[in-house]
Structure formats: structure tokens, C-alpha cells
Amino acid sequence: MKASVLLKSSLLTSLFVITSCATTKYSEDISKNNYSNLEAGKIYKVTMRDGSPKQTILFRNVVGDNLVGTAGKKDSTEVVIPKSNVAAVKDRRKARIAAGATIIGAAGVAAIVISSSRAD
Which residue of 3, 35, 51, 81 is surrounded by the most CB atoms within 10 Å? Predict the structure, then answer.
């Protein structure tokens, strides 16, 4: 009985860990990076390679060696980020969903473990 509960809880935990990846990391070699997974109209948080502060961008498209977008939905200031300066890009919407799913999953695992320990 305990083994099956442990198996179920570990499967649930691994499922949430696998689905929680919301950050795409990029190498310094621009030719190896694939920016096709970035969708126009979505807000991303870009981590810079040079250590400057993270930048939020409402992505529009890729023009040459630059990511182009605006500073936000209400702020139409154009933002141009060189691909060579991009270390990682985080999809803010996916990150929020993944965090919520992880919390719900952890509560579910705790409920299963507690209920199984009371059943013994």
C-alpha cells in the first residue's frame, strides 16, 4: 500500500517538474540559437548576457540580429535587443501557470500521503 502511494506521489511530482519549464536559454553562438519559439504579441522577460537588468518585452519579431518589440502593452516605446546579448528568455505567462501547477501538485501529493498514512 505504501509503495503504491509513494509511486503515485513521485509520478505526480515528476509530472509537475517536467511541465514547469518556462525559460529558454541561449548559447553565445548566435547561429545555433533558434528564436522561432518566440511568439509575436506575448510578453517575455529577457535576461541579458552582459549582466544588465532583465528587460520585459512585448515581442513583435526578429529583424536581422535583433529581437524587436515594445516595452509593454500600454507603453509603445520600441525595444531592440541584440541576439548576442540574450542569455535567456522567460515566458511570463507560462511561468505563472507552472508555479500555480506546482503548488497545486504539491498540495495534492501531501493530501495523498496524509490520507494513505491515516488509512493504515
Answer: 81
